[in-house]
Amino acid sequence: MLLRHLKWLALAALLIALPALAEDPKIYGLPTADPASLGLSAEILADVKTKLNAFVEKGNLPGFIVAVARNGKVGYFEAWGQRDVERKKPMTPDTIFRMYSMTKPITGAAVMTLVDAGKISLDDPLSKYIPAFKDMKVLVEKPDGTTELVAAERPITLKHLMTHTSGIVYGLFDRGKLGEIYREKDINSDGSSGFTLEELAKRTASVPLKCQPGAEWNYGINMDILGRVVEVVTGQRYADYLQEKIFKPLGMKDAAFHVPADKADRLASNYGPKAGGMSLLEDAATSPFLKIPSQDSGGGGMVATAGDYLRFAQMLLNGGELDGVRVLSKKAADEMTSNQLPAALGDAPLNLLPGLKFTGIGFGYCGATPLKENTLFGDDGEYTWGGYASTDFWINKKENLIGLVLTQLIPTNTYPTRPIAHNAIKAAIVK
What we know:
Helix content is 31%, strand content 19%. It has helices at residues 2-22, 25-28, 42-57, 104-116, 158-162, 177-184, 197-205, 222-234, 238-250, 306-317, 330-336, 417-427; strands spanning 63-70, 73-84, 89-90, 97-98, 137-141, 147-151, 270-274, 277-282, 303-304, 321-322, 325-326, 350-353, 356-358, 361-363, 368-370, 382-387, 391-396, 401-406.
């Protein structure tokens, strides 16, 4: 009897302690609620961990955080596995992740704050802010292997940058002649490059475009160039502008372009696949993200916690505001999360990475907007993007829902973690 009594006392103590933790916005980003009260099945949500944990148990991935929010409240938040396998540090709700390309939607929002303020128009030519981009050339690669330079038929606009239709690419991913030129000139958005966003923009303007502006969707360092535009317009370093206009107003306490010393213990290590498991790519203890970068990469340089990103996503889902603080106008938030690709692009094939070309996917500002159900990027009515280290998020405007899947493994799409989580979360919506 005494043992049974002690067990009940322990359980009661646990239940008393849980609400204080569960409501802590520093950990979960948003208030929490019972899944059933949000129209979610707790039993089906449990399948998310079961399915993804198979990768952890096999040693393919270090650990995960998966979160689901609906109607402004978190109904599911699981952190398991390890953030640092070598030191056996567990994955915790406040783990700091390299968001890589999940920085892009943040940049989209930053640009839209300037649109809201009347300081820029998305129809403005890029050369208005960075004159080096005037009179650009396009590199035409012919079937016989020769190339030709032709004049750009129209200027690059800010909207072209926001939608990856500028003709600017990623040198790392482009396997043609243009990619070779990018690599030769060391045009990259690495915060350890030693040069600033101003220098990155100058280098990028010195090489030709892959296509005529507006003619194709090609993944590129467009959001990094947009970061430089923000610097030119505001006179502030890009990271400082984000802190003032996005991170601080939204309460994104750990979002930044580097991890300060007092938070370094929470940074996850980064891994890569190898036969039978994974290998350490970037030790958290010696990560470049522990230092202030030479350039604040608007396309891939941000670090943040799950709670930070949930607050940003909820702002978008709310139409630009959170907790009474308006960051974007409703019009700006709606435009950002709706398809903005012109009809002339047809079903808008996304030339994402070598060997990865998707159709039926629209694109808003700095994020994908699926045009139909059951695409690799999700469903109609969603706005989504992921990061190079296998991080993903989506908002579903029809269901008023946010999904977030975070781990640290390069490259993304090594394992189908995103569709597994997306499908299970979708199935968990019961009303």
